[in-house]
Amino acid sequence: MAKVGIVYLVGAGPGDPGLITVKGLECIKKAEVLVYDRLASKRLLSYAPKNCELIYVGKLPDRHTLRQEEINQLLVDKGLEGKVVTRLKGGDPYVYGRGGEEGELLRANGVPFEVVPGITSAIAVPAYAGIPVTHRDCTSSFAIITGHEDPNKTASSIAWDKIATGIGTLVFLMGVGNLSMIVKNLVDNGRAATTPVALIRWGTRPEQQVLTGTLADIVAKVAAAGFTSPAIIIVGEVVNLRETLSWFEEKPFFGKRVVVTRSREQASDLSRRIEELGGEAWEFPAIEIVEPEDFAPMDQAIAKIDSYQWLIFTSVNGVDSFFSRLRHHGRDIRDLKGAKLCAIGPKTKERLEEMCLNVEYVPSEYVAEAIIAGLRGKLLPGERVLLPRADIARAILPESLAAEMGAVVDNVVAYRTVRGGGDADLLKELLAEKMIHYITFTSSSTVKNFVEMLDTADIARSLQGVKLVSIGPITSKAARDLGLTIDLEASEYTIDGLVEALQKI
Q1: Can you give the CATH number for the domain in which 272 is found?
Q2: What are the beta bridge partners of residue 231?
Q3: CA-based nearest residue to 251, from 280, 278, 281, 279
Q4: Are 428 and 279 in a shared domain?
Q5: Does one domain contain both 211 and 275?
Q6: Quick one: three-class SS letters along 443-468?
Q7: Residue 475: which of 439, 504, 500, 505 has the closest Cα?
Q8: Would you give per-residue pLDDT tens digits along the chain (505 residues)?
Q9: How many domains, the chain?
Q10: Same domain? 467 vs 383
Q11: What angle do CA 101, 99, 62 make, to 5 degrees?
Q12: Buried/exposed code over 69-108 (b: 16+ C-beta within 10 A; e: otherwise)
């Protein structure tokens, strides 16, 4: 008997990828087929497995990629193939998402399905614009109404005479094209022409735009501004609260979409900082941290660990890789007794201190040259130094320690930096649509791999209008050598310094 798969009807939320539910994200991560529309954040696609089949079924007001009936059948066909299918829908699948129609056909064809509710734009988008849909001083009721009824209906199913005055806040979805009709029906049925109205376009995203007025003037304002879909319409006294409760647009990074090129494991700290400041972090891992091809040099160093007077760590990755291998051999920090530790920056120092290890020296500038200058007089001729670091690290540090200070240096590969798994096709699409505002580089390898992954004959043209931000001079030089223009360089060569640099643009 042929295996039948399962279809998850998942609400992706209104646009901000952070508003996906935990269960919704789990469904994306295990999908074999991901069917998505234009209102689902493209950033969520990056969480799908590498071998996942991505199928775009987005709709525009003036054209459809697939008709709804074709989408329904597509889900059935993929389910009958035995696939795990995640149908990613903007907002909530059952709030004007036509998820019920999809579920009916799945059930009729014997395909199991589950519904994962999403945060509907009817509530979240007004909230991001500083408009609560209920407020005890304004109203205790609200309604969600379609602004675009089935065109095959012979008569409207909306009771305009009741909703116009019987409900405090009215939220119309998909109604921009019918705005004049909506306004006329409300006013004709008793809603005061002075009632406040707001239209919110691309709510919860960096592109969010808000236009306010009243029933009397909102149609003219929308026409003058060229305000188009996708947008929601909010009618009611709660719109006036925007002056007091607006918060999203007040954040310093509002409107900024920032590409983070760090490895996926390390990107979260920078992404979190960007999003706390109101921006949207787009993770495009240009590097991946993997084990050495040969552990023998590291193992040999660990076997004689008590012979070293200094251990120098130039990254958190070096710390983690070294101590992971130390544990692999059944050893621990007690074997480091007598050795002095040097860390290239505050995060590396912090990771060592988490292990109850004291750090002897941290340079004021977080580059190899500063380590060399700072260790003069501290590191004595003939002392042994262990330097566990990346396979592509610059040679200046071990060479200078040996030549200038007479140190005996064991420079061992603790980890390798290889090309990451960022979705280059998706990034190219975002760049072409002018949806990327900033790209951050945290190492020379992120720059090199980024350029290789983008694989374009005219990279300057591809990045036109995008500002490039570097974590420090070594990274900046690597970028310039590859034909990139760095718009700003962090004064402190750390993630904190990078975020501070972003805020200056």
Answers
A1: 3.40.50.10090
A2: 201
A3: 278
A4: yes
A5: no
A6: CHHHHHHHHHHHCCCCHHHHCCCCEE
A7: 439
A8: 568 899 999 999 999 999 999 999 999 999 999 999 887 888 898 899 989 999 999 765 555 568 899 999 999 999 999 999 999 999 999 999 899 999 999 999 999 999 999 999 999 999 999 999 999 989 989 999 998 776 556 567 899 999 999 999 999 998 999 999 999 999 999 999 999 999 999 999 999 999 999 999 999 999 999 999 889 999 999 999 999 999 999 999 999 999 999 887 777 888 889 988 999 999 899 999 999 999 999 999 999 999 999 999 999 999 999 999 999 999 999 999 889 999 988 889 999 999 999 999 998 876 778 888 889 888 999 999 999 999 988 888 899 999 999 999 999 999 999 999 888 988 999 999 999 999 999 999 999 999 999 988 888 889 999 999 999 999 999 999 999 999 999 998 888 889 998 888 7
A9: 4
A10: no
A11: 85
A12: eebbebbbebbbeebbbbbbbbbbbbbbbebeebbebbee
Same domain as 428, residue 480: yes
d(CA 277, CA 361): 33
Query: Strands, DSSP E only, in 275-390?
Result: 280-283, 287-290, 310-313, 340-343, 384-390
Cβ neighbors of 275 (< 8 A, separation 6 or more) are 18, 281
In 65-179 the beta strands, taken as DSSP E runs, fall at 84-89, 113-116, 142-146, 169-173
Q: Which of 502, 449, 447 is nearest to 478 (CA)?
A: 447
294: which residues sit within 8 A by CB, 6+ positions away? 413
Given the DSSP bridges, would you call strands 196-201 and 231-235 parallel, antiparallel or unpaired? antiparallel
Crossing angle between the packed helical segments 495-504 and 264-276, to the nearest 10 degrees: 40
Instruction: Look up residue 118 and give its two tokens.
Output: 């999403």
CATH number, position 18: 3.40.1010.10
Distances 423 to 47, 197, 279, 306, 329 between C-alpha atoms, Å: 10, 40, 20, 45, 37
Distance of CA 160 to the CA centre of its chain: 41
Task: Note whether 111 and 130 are same-domain residues.
Answer: no
Backbone angles phi, psi at 384, to 5 degrees: -90, 135
Last residue within a domain, chosen from 98, 119, 140: 119
For the beta sheet containing 84-89, the strands, ordered from the edge strand earlier in sequence to the opposite edge, are 53-56, 33-36, 84-89, 6-11, 113-116
Does one domain contain both 140 and 34? no
Q: Which of the listed residues 389, 419, 449 is the one where a domain comes to its end? A: 419
pTM of the model: 0.80
Structural domain range at position 52: 6-119
- Structural contact between residues 154 and 265, judged by C-beta atoms closer than 8 angstroms: no
Q: For the chain, report the end-to-end CA distance as a whole number of angstroms.
A: 61
Same domain for 273 and 327, yes or no, is no
C-alpha dist (Å) from residue 92 to 142, 306, 354: 17, 60, 43
| CATH number assigned to the domain comprising residue 234 | 3.30.950.10
Pair 13, 161 in one domain: no
Residue 1 falls within a domain, yes or no? no
Question: Which positions are catalytic?
Answer: 37, 59, 174
3-state secondary structure of 207: coil
